[in-house]
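Troubleshooting: if your tokenizer reports a length mismatch, compare against these two reference records.
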Amino acid sequence: TASSRAAVRFDGVDDGLQGITGMNFSRNSTVFAVFERESSDGGYILQNSSGDGGGNWWFRNDGFYANGWVRNRDFEWGNLHVAAMSGPPGGMQAWLGYSDVSVTNSLTSAKPGRLALGGGSGQQNDPITVKIGELLVYDRVLSATEIWQTQAWLGQRYGSYAATAESPAISPPGDLGAGNVTVTISTGEAG
């Protein structure tokens, strides 16, 4: 990887690594991946491999998918990425760097199931040339603050970006209406 840390390298021909049977994780989860595409080829960086009709989800060269595009965005090759997908029952959210990059209004839930890396195994067989430096799987949906903190820690660990102040959460998120509205702005860090 960019920080000279160890990584699992997939050659884009036929490599894939699949979790063992029974290692399914639930819909209420958060998955982080630190990876670097080594060429402009397309394919699956990580995906579910449950094949049980629970719906497909993935990080692919062209974005985040969970029974529909959560964010259709190319992961540039030659750059280190710290990406995450968080799956509450109501839908999936995509995170890149310090930001929620989800763009779909109708975020869909997909059953994560078994994890497959490198594209040579899983529900879809489409290998990619990629180095995966780290993978973190949480069996719950992390809060926005926890996701930001994890992204910051991984970004600093791999030297992909320096720490910045967390963007404040605004509640309620915004609405048109009449009359007075109480708005709360908060962050997970002091200062």
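Reference record two:
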Amino acid sequence: IELDGLVDDFTISQDETWLITIMNRNTILVWNLAGNRVDKSIFTDESLEGHLALSPDSRWLAVPIHDEIWIYDTDKWEIERTLESDETVFSVEDVLFSPTGRYLAAGDFFDKPHIWEVDNGRLRVKTEDINTAEMLLFTLDGEQLITAGGPYSVSGRGSPGNIIRIWDVFEGDDADSTIAEPATDAEGTEGIE
């Protein structure tokens, strides 16, 4: 597949029927892999964050935009609902469905990871972390969310990957399991212990 433009992110359906891409931060393309063709093209005037996630059953496609996340119904390829944060600044770095598809997590560049119930759009968890959550991973049972990021700085960037935390999805509490923290060696450089 040769493309005109920049690919910001892509995902594949579990049954390998679709390859879904975000291109140029304004176009979603749904590729039929068997036919090597585009089945659906969705253009928006809004600037997409450049991340996407497909639910395990391929029913929902999550696409972050500014301070909200659009949830597309993949039967109609229309926005079914919008997930919002109560934060004034919400810049999504990663989105991920839980293995059951019940929850959607979003990693926030400025700090807090968020978790919503997909079916009703209810914000289930907004952590009170002060670190960025730039990478996300659910445990296989979907009961915990693992985030990686670093301290937010006034320069506008965190330190990706130097703090890993595990969050309980059902309670919203830090499971008291920071498993990596910044360390300083003799030269004063930061690393992982």
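Descriptive notes for reference record two:
- Residues 154-158, 172-193 have pLDDT under 50 and may be disordered.
- The radius of gyration is 17 Å.
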